[in-house]
Write a structure and sequence with these properties.
Layout: H1 8-17, E1 18-28, E2 38-48, E3 55-58, E4 62-68, E5 71-72, E6 80-83, E7 89-98, E8 107-111, E9 118-122, E10 145-152, E11 156-159, E12 167-171, E13 174-178, E14 192-195, E15 197-204, E16 207-214, H2 218-242, E17 251-257, E18 263-264, E19 269-273, H3 284-299, E20 308-309, H4 316-333, H5 339-345, H6 347-355, H7 370-373, H8 380-396, H9 398-412, E21 416-417, H10 419-430, H11 435-442, E22 448-455, E23 458-464, E24 473-483, E25 486-497, E26 501-504, E27 512-517, E28 523-525, H12 532-538, H13 545-560, H14 566-579, H15 583-600, H16 603-621, H17 627-637, H18 641-651, H19 655-667, H20 673-682, H21 688-698, H22 702-714, H23 720-730, H24 736-739, H25 741-749, H26 758-767, H27 776-785, H28 791-813
Parallel strand pairs: 1-10, 16-17, 17-19, 20-21, 22-28
Antiparallel strand pairs: 1-2, 2-7, 3-6, 4-5, 4-7, 8-9, 9-14, 10-13, 11-14, 12-13, 15-16, 18-19, 22-23, 23-26, 24-25, 24-27
Helix pairs in contact: 2-3, 2-4, 3-4, 4-8, 5-13, 5-15, 6-8, 8-9, 9-10, 13-14, 14-15, 14-16, 15-16, 15-17, 16-17, 17-19, 18-19, 19-20, 19-21, 21-22, 21-23, 22-23, 23-26, 26-28, 27-28
């Protein structure tokens, strides 16, 4: 059904006219074991401040019947039903049918290939609830929701109020689950998940914690459950304390579902992609990622659910705060004390690229309609936003920051807020006027640049902001002295920046000065006096993962801006890897080194740099706890079939490593079909066929490329959780000739890439974007096409075009 995107003006008008008392929503899932249909009856009780007025309710599903105060309504148009002649108090009843549960928005039916069992999940951000039932689908019309779900008798149903709290009635081949009322929630914060779920429960500190997944992954959930329960308990305790408000519901469920993208913070019932349940033993980086995502979604219970932004221009109040808070909680309350180092080594670097590109925008940005909102779930809102909030906590002090949060939730719980509400609370707690900080950091796009100048014994921090003067900020400058082949910090000077030049009282005699030591702000830096050689030498000599990370971030920024050749950047990262002590950054740096060799280096230097990466991987593979991640990275950089054979010997019974080895073997042009068939028989992963597809994707064979493209891009039969590895294996270096036709095929796909909602749109647009076999003329065409497609597709298209353009220029420049 064609739909219109809700505008901010329409949302404000509707919110000024009505208040929603409650939703009573009955959902029938009994057709799903064999059919596609979800049936819903939404009964909405609401009041109107101007009796006789007119508004509309959102419903993008097929409307079967609709009545307002027992009066039949006209048909839906553009995903809306007109509500005319409103009374002071109204009851709206809409029966609807959603038949597109394969590729439609809001609700998805997945079939487990292992046993044929059917699972269904719902996910509604930003405005997808309207695709399943009628509602006023905007964040500031919050109300209690009461769900009654009829499902097959063998299924478990989860929802916001907790499956254990539901009243279950047997109905022969079906069961009805009647859930208690939720608190006042926005429609996008609600959820229903269902299927023959495997469940584990545990009591912890007064909370009833639940984990769910499909039955074929029960053993994996059993393996990881203890750690998930520990993290959940630690997170709830930490947030309850620093926000001055314990999580108010006793039950807290987390449901791992097939074919889901990412994770979604539904109140009391978080939905995850079950790719987070790693089929092989998780690496340290994978465990850390699970911890951060768990804590991110949990932070949304407060930022997003309990207190919700009034409109999508304050999306950052949800996402940036949750991304900041998950690192704060990880470092403060869990075993993942290097979380900020991991953030700097990975996500923050993507934010530096995005913030210096054509799609940069302020963290807080005007949003005309919900379609635009879908386009700002990006590296500016998430990792830059998290880094800026870390800077804000540094600026006002951690204790004051926590006090401001406590006051914010005490005043606004279960309501809606704007940016100014938060700024007022933090400013009052910290005793600072934060308006200049707000304008600089939240309302201005772009990245500050910081460096040091020396004049005799005097040291001056020189700053430049995107609009002239640097933003107000507090950061550290570290002074280091040589101690053999290492650097030892002799002083850390806190500097408050108020203008373009700030004196820094560092002790005399330092051998190296590090700007933004401890990574307390979001700014690119350059070495003092342009001493690039000194920076490259210092990076592996610095004493901590964060200090080394700050140096690597500068090297990365110099690479992407064309100031440093790929060879120098790659060798610096490899030098850091040889001495790195933090598992939080080993895997991101191995990925970075591989990316530089594969994507940024000139073709003439690619083999040499790839061999250098492989050599470091062999070194790290000899270090017990790093063996797994090193061998995975070696699979990507193995130079020939002898290297692949060595890797297969090292892999032994490790099925995951054997799949990685086969991808590389296929890329090198060797036959793999028999080994793939053998591995499919040995792999317990119910989704192993997608690993086999990645092997086929890597082969430099026109027939295989065509078949994989059809499956991946045209038929869209690879779930989003498995999509990335297959797409990465498709676009490989050295295959330019066979890949060249797919640049045009990619452009042909663009008009339909928004089908299925925001997550799918970003995944298809970004991961299918050509990285080889294209030139600058193609990138020009891609950027021109961005103006003619859905906002989320156009935004991702411009981002990828900019990144690949930087890669092409780096490949052309070579060593200098």
């Amino acid at each position: 059904m064609p739909t219109r995107s809700l505008t901010q003006t329409e949302a404000e008008t509707r919110a000024s006219l009505i208040s929603v008392d409650r939703y009573d929503i009955a959902v029938d899932l009994t057709d799903l074991p064999t059919g596609p249909h979800v049936r819903s009856v939404s009964t909405v009780t609401f009041t109107c401040r101007e009796p006789g007025a007119e508004t509309f309710v959102d419903c993008a599903a097929e409307v079967v019947t609709a009545t307002l105060n027992d009066r039949p309504l006209g048909p839906a148009a553009d995903g809306r039903i007109v509500l005319d002649g409103l009374a002071a108090r109204n009851v709206l009843r809409v029966e609807s049918l959603q038949a597109d549960t394969a590729e439609g928005a809001g609700v998805h039916r997945a079939v487990d290939p292992a046993d044929g069992e059917v699972y269904v999940w719902m996910s509604f951000e930003p405005d997808q609830a309207r695709h399943v039932w009628a509602c006023f689908d905007q964040p500031d019309l919050k109300a209690p929701h009461a769900f009654t779900v009829t499902a097959p008798a063998g299924w478990t149903v989860t929802s916001n109020s907790g499956s254990g709290n539901a009243r279950v009635q047997e109905l022969g081949d079906a069961r009805t689950w009647t859930f208690p009322d939720t608190p006042a929630l926005s429609p996008y914060n609600t959820v229903i998940n269902a299927g023959p779920l495997y469940e584990i429960r545990r009591e912890a500190d007064g909370h009833d914690l639940g984990l769910f997944t499909r039955r074929s992954l029960a053993a994996v959930l059993d393996r990881d459950a203890d750690e998930m329960f520990t993290l959940t308990s630690q997170g709830l305790a930490f947030y309850g304390e620093v926000f001055g408000m314990p999580f108010p519901q006793r039950t807290y469920d987390q449901v791992f579902m097939p074919e889901f993208g990412g994770a979604m913070e539904n109140y009391g019932c978080v939905t995850w992609s079950d790719v987070f349940l790693r089929r092989s033993t998780p690496t340290p980086a994978e465990r850390a990622l699970l911890a951060r995502v768990l804590l991110h979604e949990m932070a949304h219970m407060w930022f997003g659910n309990i207190v919700t932004m009034r409109w999508w221009d304050d999306l950052w109040l949800n996402e940036a705060f949750a991304e900041f808070a998950c690192h704060w909680a990880a470092v403060s309350a869990t075993a993942y004390t290097d979380a900020w180092a991991g953030h700097l080594a990975a996500e923050k670097l993507t934010a530096y690229v995005a913030d210096q590109g054509p799609t940069s925008h302020p963290i807080s940005v005007p949003i005309r309609d919900v379609a635009e909102a879908a386009s700002i779930f990006d590296a500016i809102t998430y990792p830059k936003g998290a880094s800026v909030l870390q800077q804000l906590m540094t600026y006002v002090g951690e204790d004051n920051f926590a006090a401001g949060m406590t006051a914010y939730f005490a005043q606004h719980a279960w309501g809606n807020t704007t940016l100014q509400d938060l700024i007022d609370a933090l400013g009052a707690a910290g005793g600072r006027d934060l308006n200049a900080w707000r304008r600089g950091w939240l309302e201005t796009a772009g990245t500050d640049r910081l460096t040091l100048e020396t004049d005799g014994e005097d040291v001056v921090l020189v700053g430049r902001g995107p609009a002239g003067d640097p933003r107000p900020q507090v950061l550290g400058v570290g002074a280091y002295r040589r101690d053999g082949d290492r650097l030892a910090r002799t002083a850390l000077v806190r500097v408050e920046v108020r203008g373009p030049r700030t004196p820094v009282a560092v002790p005399a005699g330092a051998d190296f000065l590090l700007v933004n030591d401890d990574d307390l702000t979001f700014a690119t830096t350059r070495p003092a006096a342009g001493d690039t050689a000194g920076l490259l030498a210092a990076a592996p000599a610095l004493p901590t993962a964060v200090s080394r990370g700050v140096a690597v971030a500068t090297v990365w920024d110099m690479l992407i801006t064309g100031e440093l050749p790929a060879r120098a950047a790659a060798h610096c990262v490899l030098d850091v890897l040889r001495v790195e002590t933090s598992d939080a950054v080993i895997e991101p740096y191995l990925t970075m080194a591989g990316n530089i060799a594969e994507l940024w280096a000139p073709e003439a230097e690619r083999a040499e740099l790839t061999a250098a990466v492989a050599a470091v991987c062999r070194e790290l593979a000899g270090q017990g706890g790093r063996r797994q991640v090193a061998l995975r990275a070696f699979a990507r950089s193995a130079g020939d079939l002898d290297d692949v054979a060595w890797l297969q010997e090292q892999a032994g019974d490790d099925v995951d490593l054997r799949w990685h080895a086969l991808v590389r073997k296929a890329e090198l042009g060797a036959p793999t079909a028999d080994e793939v068939d053998d591995l499919l028989k040995r792999d317990p992963d119910p989704d192993a066929q997608r690993r086999a597809l990645a092997v086929r994707a890597a082969a430099p064979d026109p027939g295989e490329k065509a078949a994989v493209w059809q499956t991946l891009a045209v038929d869209r039969s690879v779930p989003v959780g498995s999509f990335g590895p297959v797409a990465a294996a498709f676009w490989l270096p050295g295959q330019d000739e066979v890949l060249a036709p797919y640049a045009e095929k990619y452009l042909e796909l663009l008009p339909g890439l928004d089908r299925g909602g925001m997550i799918l749109a970003m995944a298809y647009t970004g991961r299918l974007f050509p990285r080889f076999g294209v030139d600058e003329a193609f990138l020009d065409r891609a950027e021109e096409a961005a103006a003619r497609v859905a906002p989320v597709v156009g935004k991702t298209l411009r981002e990828r075009s900019d990144l690949v353009r930087r890669m092409l220029r780096s490949r052309a420049n070579g060593s200098r």
